[in-house]
Design goal:
This protein has five helices and ten strands, in the order ααββββαβββααβββ. It is of the alpha+beta class. Strands 1, 2, 3, 4, 5, 6, 7, 8, 9 and 10 form a ten-stranded antiparallel sheet that branches. The protein is globular, with a radius of gyration of 18 Å.
Length: 201
């Protein structure tokens, strides 16, 4: 997924301030992201969902930005199995591993996919190669060699109906910081006003 964003926007998107005070975990995350620098893997999140048959699913997505203090945004293909999984069980968990900072964040929340209307900026914010992924055939279907797989789509290309934004409203955040001895494990919950609680690692 390294090619689906403009690398020059990496640090700005990750560290952009929101109105009002940030929760304490956002402040820690901001510092960890700063230590990661501009390496592309700093935007990769592992998303865990539950399929309709009750079995687990996990895949890597790209962090796109924040909406307010405690809602993050991802993009996906509306034809993918993730949409059915969100509809079956909207409660999800993300794992965000930041290797230079030696920190792992586990973010639990609720996914609410929404189609992006043509007048919105999310589509245009992608790189040409990033937009191209939504021009590929239906994900998960048998491969057809003759099917189109464009390498780029221009900024003025129509927004596909299956271009979907996935806002995830976070209810719980857990941090495991491996740079300490003993390792530091912290927990925050929205219902408690994001008060910090230390746990055994």
């Amino acid at each position: 997924p390294a090619h689906v964003f403009r690398s020059g926007e990496l640090f700005q998107t990750m560290t952009a301030a929101t109105d009002g005070a940030l929760p304490p975990w956002r402040q820690r995350l901001r510092g960890a992201l700063k230590r990661e620098g501009r390496q592309v893997s700093a935007r990769w999140l592992q998303l865990a969902t539950v399929a309709s048959d009750g079995t687990p699913r996990v895949r890597t997505l790209v962090f796109r930005g924040w909406n307010g203090a405690d809602q993050l945004e991802l993009y996906t293909d509306g034809r993918s199995s993730k949409i059915a999984e969100f509809n079956h069980q909207p409660q999800v968990e993300l794992c965000w591993l930041l290797t230079k900072a030696k920190q792992q964040y586990r973010l639990r929340g609720t996914a609410a996919p929404v189609a992006v209307s043509p007048d919105q900026a999310q589509w245009r914010s992608l790189s040409p190669s990033g937009r191209a992924l939504w021009g590929w055939p239906h994900p998960g279907q048998p491969f057809e060699p003759a099917a189109p797989f464009p390498q780029e789509l221009p900024e003025d290309a129509p927004v596909p109906d299956h271009f979907v934004m996935v806002p995830i409203s976070l209810q719980q955040v857990e941090l495991l910081d491996l740079s300490h001895h003993p390792h530091q494990r912290l927990l925050w919950r929205r219902e408690n006003g994001w008060l910090e609680k230390r746990l055994n690692p």
